[in-house]
Amino acid sequence: MVIVWQFCGVNLKPDMKKIICTTDFSRASSKVCRYAAQLAAQTGAELYLLHASHPSYTFNPDLQVMPVEDVSVELYYQARLKRLAARLTRLTEGTVYIEPVNRVGLAADVIAETTALFKPDLLLMSTVGQLPRSPGVFGNVASEMIGKVTVPTMFVPPRAGFKPYENVYVGIDVTEKIDAVALQQMIDRLKAFKAVITIFTVVKNPEAPAVKEVTTRLREMLHEYPHVIDITQGENFADAFLSHAHANKADLLVVFPKQHNWLKRWLTVSNTEELVFRTGLPMIAIA
Q1: Three-class SS string for 120-134?
Q2: What is the pTM of this model?
Q3: Residue 92 — very low, low, confident or very high, per pLDDT cuts 50/70/90?
Q4: pLDDT band at 224 (very low <50, low <70, confident <90, very high)
Q5: DSSP class of residue 11?
Q6: How far apart are the first and last CA of the chain?
Q7: What's the average model confidence in pLDDT over 52-61?
Q8: I need a labelling partner for 90 at 20 to 30 A (CA). Which of 100, 140, 206, 284 fits?
Q9: Please, what's the b/e burial string for 246-256 (b: 16 or more CB within 10 A of its CB; e: otherwise)?
Q10: Is residue 57 packed enough to be buried (19+ CB in 10 Å), middle (13-18) or exposed (0-12)?
Q11: Domain ranges across the chain
């Protein structure tokens, strides 16, 4: 087994200044917006509430579908965003700058374009939308986001209430390239939450020289922080990661989707709850 520490471009900035939270005005996404507002209050970040208005359609004489602008619909959603922003301002007692952003288009495209324009430090999305049990619908959008969005994305289950993070589980596949710079900056970011960081990985042979080498490198990176390095013997990274995090009462999960193809696969099928609902934990996917 060869372990490569890759030093490349990093998307996780040392200071959190901008957060985008998507909303479709469902009960679940409203809870995530409250979560985002409380996170913004703790970190001092600005909060942008993003909604994608579906374009209206009409048929031209050649029976081709063409989008048309509907000003009344856009104004309606702008008004709803302003009311949501007002509620969150009261929740945070005016300590957070909150700006509504309404864009017309398909959700995945709007989210990708807006994050590229605003360059937020964190994007928040709910794990369910207008239909309470529609993980497959969410999964298709989330899967696209992993491929399109170049900012850390937090997926928040509707039952996850905000609280300062104390026990963060970071999943790393040591058989793949490790972006050492992204990992270090992620660790530095978590320092602000004063959380215990658990680096978790699954290997066939924990005693292999390459595994011991990466363990030494990780301890060097984490020497200033309270941490645990959990190397579990096995082959199924995903199941072991989730079960260990749940058993040890983690309150935040962090993964690197470029390493974990299982994340994108699970987000596109009906059993999305295997990833998020089983633990009910917020999860950050770092691009």
Answers
A1: CCEEEEECCCCCCCC
A2: 0.79
A3: very high
A4: confident
A5: -
A6: 24
A7: 61
A8: 284
A9: eeeebbbbbbb
A10: exposed
A11: 5-9+161-282, 18-156
